[in-house]
Known about the structure:
Oligomer: heterodimer
Largest sheet of chain B: 2 strands, antiparallel
Order of helices and strands of chain A: EEEHEEHHHHEHEHEEHHH
Number of strands of chain B: 2
Order of helices and strands of chain B: HHHHHHHHHHHHHHHHEEHHH
CATH architecture of the largest domain in chain B: Orthogonal Bundle
Distance between the termini of chain A: 24 Å
Number of strands of chain A: 9
Mean pLDDT of chain B: 88
Low-confidence stretches of chain B: none
Largest interface: A-B, 33 and 28 residues
Radius of gyration of chain B: 32 Å
CATH superfamily of the largest domain in chain B: ABC transporter involved in vitamin B12 uptake, BtuC
Structural class of chain A: alpha/beta
Largest sheet of chain A: 6 strands, mixed
Strand order of the largest sheet of chain B: 1-2
Number of helices of chain A: 10
Distance between the termini of chain B: 68 Å
Shape of chain B: elongated
CATH topology of the largest domain in chain B: ABC transporter involved in vitamin B12 uptake, BtuC
Helix content of chain B: over 70%
Number of domains of chain B: 3
Amino acid sequence: MIQHVEDPVLEVHDLTVSYQRKPVLWDVDLTLPKQSLVGIIGPNGAGKSTLIKAIMGLLPLNSGYVELFGKPLDEIRKRVSYVPQRESVDWDFPASALDVAMMGTYGQLGLFKRPGAKQRQLAMEALEKVGMQDFANRQISQLSGGQQQRVFLSRALAQDADLYLMDEPFAGVDIATETAIIGLLRQMRDAGKTVVVVHHDLQSAQDYFDWIILLNMRLVASGPTEETLTPALLEKTYGGRLTELSRVSDLLHKQNFPIRETKPTRK
Amino acid sequence: MNTLWEFLSMSDANVRFVTIGSVLLAASSAVVGCFTVLRKRALVGDAVAHAVLPGVCLAFILTGEKNPLILLLGSFLTGWLSLIIIDFISANSRIKEDTAIGLVLSVFFGIGILFLTSIQHSGNENQSGLDKFLFGSAAALVGQDLITFGAVALLLLICVTLLYKEFKLLSFDPAYARTIGLPVRGLELLLTTLTVLAVVVGIQSVGVVLMSAMLITPAAAARFWTDRLGAMVIIAASMSAFCGATGAFVSFTAPAMPTGPWIVMLLSMLALLSFMFAPKKGILARYLLQRRIRKQMARENILKTLFHLGEDTGEYSHSYSKKQIKQRRRQPLFQMKSSMQELRRKNLIRKGPEGWSLTEAGKKEAQRVVRLHRLWELYLTEYLQVASDHVHEDAETIEHVLTPELEQRLEELLNHPTADPHQSSIPQQP
């Protein structure tokens, strides 16, 4: 069940991505509608984070292309914002919550220019949106996991983008924070933004998202929540690996095979 | 003392130059070093420092003279080469990065020593002073050398000032930096180049062997004093500048002394002091905090004991001797003495003719601790299904930690209980 939309906010076309010569995503083809809250769901190692990293241009593609708002990423970077996994950075870094939120304004600022009062205010507003204004001057290692996650969100908010890609924003977060975050994401959607979230809790996925992407090394489904979260499709997603696919991946990895014979071309 | 005065007055132009040079070199390597440390590339800095030696020697062999610009170029080239080889090895073989660093460091340094020895035996009279690159000599920083090296150091400082925000983000979260369109590859390349340059200019005053200390030590020490990158960079630079100036002084008073070891020893002393005495993060501050907590626990335990004694009779203002208190709860006498003095000073207990008793304020405080103890016991049995004979030990510590906010939460969660799992009554909040 892969449903495509007209005039998509994000188009992923025939995307194959590998880690160290081992394909982890095969031929993914999907489009996402504007103004929606999208959940990427699948078991561990299904390639959920890989998909959004590939969309953000952080991984080399073996095949296919990605278009956002009908353009390649480099042309519309300022309209897209990425929230990495919380564990991807060292929180002992000498910075305050406000410092991190302020990093969201660096893209707009451009090289050499120093952040000033305006950037500081943008960052403060972003911190307020996630309820972290009282912790603005706190060193980031002294924040709890949920608070660190909120600081990461505020950095993305300070970017003021139209499309947000978030890698596990609910991981290691307490219930109160999760409720607060999902409330915020809904507000963002209602304000016309699109939010894509890597998520691994099926139970809550049902009422969090309007659109679901089911993933397990390949795209199982992409469509409105009520049509995708069906027992049959979930069985297909979670019902064990496709052993043949995994074995071919291993073979390519072990024998140092090229994943594709030609380099990816745009359209 | 006279020499120190003569040095400080800077009346000698030579002293002035050497000092300014050393300060500049030391500060610039400390500033660049902050980013090296935060990006967890400290070992790479060490490898580059060692790999610079063959470059210096080769440049000398090829030209036969000690032109600072050429020596700088030579060392820059081999420094970079070593980095490329490290990256190549760790990307294209099973050898991990730390092993690759070890390999490259020793091979390059070995070759450097080989060249150096052969130069020393070549009979070229220009070669005198080349061995200064091993341990450094700030006094050799004169004329052309000073201008060249000083200019490079200045360039480093300007680069970091201009690209401070980019380097900050790059060190914290390179993946995010890429997504907002920063030229991460280029910035990484630049930062690495700056590191190599810092090493190259620094070897003049400290030498290749100890150069990595100039990068790493100030950053590590500065981190103890602050939680902000800007402050860390400034503190690191100031510490390093101070040590650089001292090194210049040593070079000035005893020209035979190698400057490098002096600077590095001083820096290490500063780092050690930071490690011991920095507020909050230093060992001493942490020890004092521990001690304060232990003392508070001891005091609260005495109040609690008096309260328990009162609970037996229902008479809380009764007086007890130290012996009676000790019988109820064993504790070291000397600790008990100082705790009781402190409690008395705070007017929580009073001393009467028959011994010690709780004051009204003391009783309140004791009630609070006992309440927390019993609340926690109840919480453990109700919510964690811990057997009731196991909860006491646990609650003995937790009672001292719980905040009023958590107390409130527990009260609500347990529905304002009146009795603990052992059927002792829970003192109610006044």
